[in-house]
Automatic annotation (TrEMBL):
<dbReference type="GO" id="GO:0036126">
    <property type="term" value="C:sperm flagellum"/>
</dbReference>
<dbReference type="Pfam" id="PF15104">
    <property type="entry name" value="CFAP141"/>
</dbReference>
<dbReference type="GO" id="GO:0160111">
    <property type="term" value="C:axonemal A tubule inner sheath"/>
</dbReference>
<protein>
    <submittedName>
        <fullName>C1orf189 isoform 1</fullName>
    </submittedName>
</protein>
<dbReference type="GO" id="GO:0030317">
    <property type="term" value="P:flagellated sperm motility"/>
</dbReference>
<dbReference type="InterPro" id="IPR029375">
    <property type="entry name" value="CFAP141"/>
</dbReference>
């Protein structure tokens, strides 16, 4: 065989090997994808249960936080009203009775 034919044969062989590697990679990734999907379907109920548990915990913490925020706002409101009443009483020359120890 001539050198030109040998290089053409080698090129076609290299091309065929490249295509075979590409097909093998595609088959491996396809198999891996199918395996992941099957694994995900088996794990899905457990993940849903964990997610629901996490959501319940987050809701409980959110309720606690909301309660604390509302209590703080109410405390500030009462403090502001107390200051206002004290100023009004001072203007009239009166004051709240405060027991001293």
């Amino acid at each position: 065989m001539s050198v030109e034919k040998m290089t053409k044969v080698e090129e076609s062989f290299q091309k065929a090997m490249g295509l075979k590697k590409t097909v093998d990679r595609w088959q491996n990734s396809h198999t891996h994808c199918l395996w992941q999907m099957a694994l995900g379907q088996r794990r899905n109920p457990y993940a849903t249960l964990r997610m629901q548990d996490t959501m319940v915990q987050e809701l409980a913490l959110a309720k606690k936080q909301l309660l604390m925020v509302r209590q703080a706002a109410l405390h500030q409101l009462f403090e502001k009203e107390h200051q206002q009443y004290q100023q009004e009483l001072n203007q009239m020359g009166k004051a709240f009775y405060v027991e001293r120890f």
